[in-house]
Amino acid sequence: xxxxxxxxxxxxxxxxxxxxxxxxxxxxxxxxxxxxxxxxxxxxxxxxxxxxxxxxxxxxxxxxxxxxxxxxxxxxxxxxxxxxxxxxxxxxxxxxxxxxxxxxxxxxxxxxxxxxxxxxxxxxxxxxxxxxxxxxxxxxxxxxxxxx
Length: 148
Known about the structure:
Layout: H1 2-6, H2 15-24, H3 32-41, H4 52-69, H5 90-99, H6 102-114, H7 118-122, E1 129-130, E2 133-136, E3 146-147
Antiparallel strand pairs: 1-2, 2-3
């Protein structure tokens, strides 16, 4: 933990936990090939194999350990699994808005029409709305105000 703190990692990082988990499963941290084999064979509690994202995090944890101990190793490449994003269609959004209460429906319809960030809509004031144009004077992304 002292090395991790000196290197500027956050204090809640899970690297030590990951390394101790690998050691419990039989990895010899001073032998990089042993660690590669254990990472490749890791399974969850329900018996499913680790996904590539978990394997990638384990290799980063071991990489930090290797830098601390001056061990050279070739890190295996695992690519993070991309999440599929659900995009509801217009009809589903309208159903959601119509089922919501008055204030929430106003908030949701404003989000739908302006594509603004939710925090921008929450900070909006009535004086910013003129002729069906909402001027965003409180942007959360970027330095400039805009109109929706």
